[in-house]
Design goal:
- The strands form 2 sheets. Strands 1, 2, 3, 4, 5, 6 and 7 form a 7-stranded mixed sheet that branches.
- This protein is elongated.
- It has helices at 18-27, 55-72, 101-119, 138-142, 145-152, 195-205, 240-253, 269-280, 291-297, 308-320, 328-350, 360-398, 404-436, 445-471, 478-498; strands at 5-8, 11-12, 33-41, 46-53, 88-97, 123-127, 175-179, 184-190, 215-222, 225-232, 258-264.
- The chain has 15 helices and 11 strands.
- It has 499 residues and is of the alpha+beta class.
- It starts with a strand and ends with a helix.
- The protein has 3 domains: 5-179, 2-Layer Sandwich (Formiminotransferase-cyclodeaminase, Chain B, domain 1); 184-280, Alpha-Beta Plaits (2-Layer Sandwich); 323-498, Four Helix Bundle (Hemerythrin (Met), subunit A) (Up-down Bundle), CATH 1.20.120.
- α11 (328-350) packs parallel to α13 (404-436), α13 runs antiparallel to α14 and α14 packs antiparallel against α15 (478-498).
Length: 499
């Protein structure tokens, strides 16, 4: 079927052996299928792989992934915090474009039948593909995990699979295949190691025991912290910010607080927009205020599915256009934002890994600071262009005013403040990159080197914009002279740091 796009998020019961996960992913690489994300969690001993592709191709990719997992994963030797019943534990299909949930149900049934036929792995259908109401919920199917199903599948009619013989694969167990809407896997860490508290909070928040609609939850001990692990099956009706506030309120009953949260896999931008609107309480908020959304609105028919280039190309083409804005100041801000993004990625991929547990608090602090700096620099991309336009308007207005120099100087001060702020932020990023080098994975050293280079380029460009604006000022009043002197001192200090 042409022009179809389906997401598939298979969960595999392996989160510690990278070579095995790499082999599974390699088995799923076929034309028409693209890898969007991979998550490995050693404590859960589980990997979540996010694929997107054409309808026919992604079905075959999923089948091959299940087969490779059956070769490599032995559930009789498997231990981890997350419940599991199969080497390939769950394989959901999610409609993205050109397909309906009914189409994904048909896909799930085809894939389930093929898995049973090719690999002798029994398959259960769940969510929208379930043949009976009690099998819509994954927890009902997986109850007792691999060992419980192995003991009952041949004798308990309720355990009879939808495809295959009533006999689990001796090492690969059974697999659940289904169709569902987009799911957000969201975990909240608490400032306690008491996993019983996490379990009590999970019981309160999940819908099956009287909590929030469209929320599933369980409590685990992960990296020495109690974790409330949740799946949000309809984030539009039960948004992520409501879930966080609920958990925070429940945690207070036990004298604990959330320390951080994590997304496993991908999250729709809309979910984060909802959270931003709620927590920031921005009066005039709408999605068009977000830079990436505004850029997307001017893209000429391209989408993110077209690759990374589709997101950055419009900005590059605007830089190349024979217009004054965006110019060097915007480019400096963009370079700084990329530096912060790279450093953030390195810190995030090192945090939680066994080799870097002693640096957990330092990495968490860096991640929070880099995230804030990245957002501020992204805003400066537009702010620099706007400040230039403001200066041009000031020069025009000055021709018709007896107070022309004051008007121009005021505009130049504003135009100077933006790149000066960029310079201060990228200088901070450069320092953080240096601090990250000894406490992060050395295999990602090239990413930090690139981040440092981008930060230094941004600092050089931003200070050049500061200099040219100061050079255009005719500082006559005391306030203007003080601004000029103070800014020159700050710029000199930042330039010394870069040297």
């Amino acid at each position: 079927m042409p022009n179809t796009l389906v997401e598939c998020v298979p969960n595999f019961s392996e989160g510690r052996d990278k070579a095995k996960v790499d082999a599974i992913i390699e088995a799923m690489k076929i034309p028409g299928v693209h890898l969007l994300d991979r998550e490995m969690d050693a404590d859960h001993n589980r990997s979540v792989i996010t694929l997107v592709g054409e309808r026919e191709a992604i079905q075959e990719a999923a089948i091959r992934g299940v087969g490779k997992a059956a070769e490599l994963i032995d559930l009789t030797q498997h231990q981890g915090a997350h419940p599991r019943m199969g080497a390939a534990d769950v394989v959901p299909f999610i409609p993205i474009e050109g397909v309906t949930i009914e189409d994904c149900v048909a896909m799930a049934k085809h894939v389930g039948a093929e898995i049973a036929k090719r690999f002798s792995i029994p398959v259960y259908l769940y969510e929208a593909a379930a043949a009976s109401p009690e099998r819509q919920n994954l927890e009902n199917i997986r109850r007792g995990q691999f060992e419980g199903i192995r003991d009952e599948i041949a004798t308990n009619p309720a355990r009879k699979p939808d495809f295959g013989e009533p006999l689990v694969h001796p090492t690969a167990g059974a697999t659940v295949v289904g169709a569902r809407k987009f799911l957000v896997a969201y975990n909240i860490f608490l400032n306690t190691a008491d996993v019983d508290i996490a379990k009590k909070i999970a019981k309160a928040v999940r819908f099956s025991t009287g909590g929030l609609r469209f929320v599933k939850g369980a409590g685990f001990l992960v990296r020495g912290q109690a974790q409330v692990s949740m799946n949000l099956t309809d984030f539009e009706q039960t948004p992520i910010h409501r879930v966080f506030e609920f958990v925070k309120r429940e945690a207070a009953r036990y004298g604990v607080v959330p320390t951080s949260s994590e997304i496993v896999g991908l999250i729709p931008k809309l979910a984060l927009e909802q959270a931003a609107e709620w927590f920031l309480q921005v009066e005039n908020f709408d999605s068009s205020l977000i830079l990436e959304n505004r850029l997307a609105s001017v893209m000429t028919g391209k989408t993110a599915v077209g690759g990374l280039r589709a997101g950055v190309e419009p900005f590059i083409e605007q830089l190349a256009a024979p217009t004054a804005t965006p110019g060097g100041g915007s480019a400096a801000a963009a370079s700084g934002a990329m530096a912060a993004g790279l450093a953030h990625m390195v810190a995030a991929m090192s945090r939680g890994k066994k080799a870097y547990l002693q640096f957990e608090s330092q990495l968490s602090e860096a991640i929070a600071q880099l995230g804030q700096l990245r957002e501020e620099l992204k805003q400066a991309i537009d702010a620099d262009a706007e400040s230039y336009n403001f200066v041009m308007k000031a020069y025009k207005a000055a021709r018709e005013s007896a107070d022309g120099d004051r008007i121009i100087n005021a505009a130049l001060q504003t135009a100077t403040t933006v790149p000066l702020g960029v310079a201060e932020r990228v200088a901070a990023i450069a320092k953080m990159v240096d601090r990250l080098k000894p406490i992060t994975n050395p295999n990602m050293a090239s990413d930090l080197i690139t981040a440092a280079a981008l930060a230094n380029a941004a600092l050089t460009g931003a200070l050049a914009n500061v200099d040219i604006n100061l050079g255009s000022m005719k500082a006559e009043t005391t306030d203007e002279q003080e601004f000029l002197s103070r800014t020159q001192e700050l710029a000199a200090a930042l330039r010394t740091q870069a040297d």
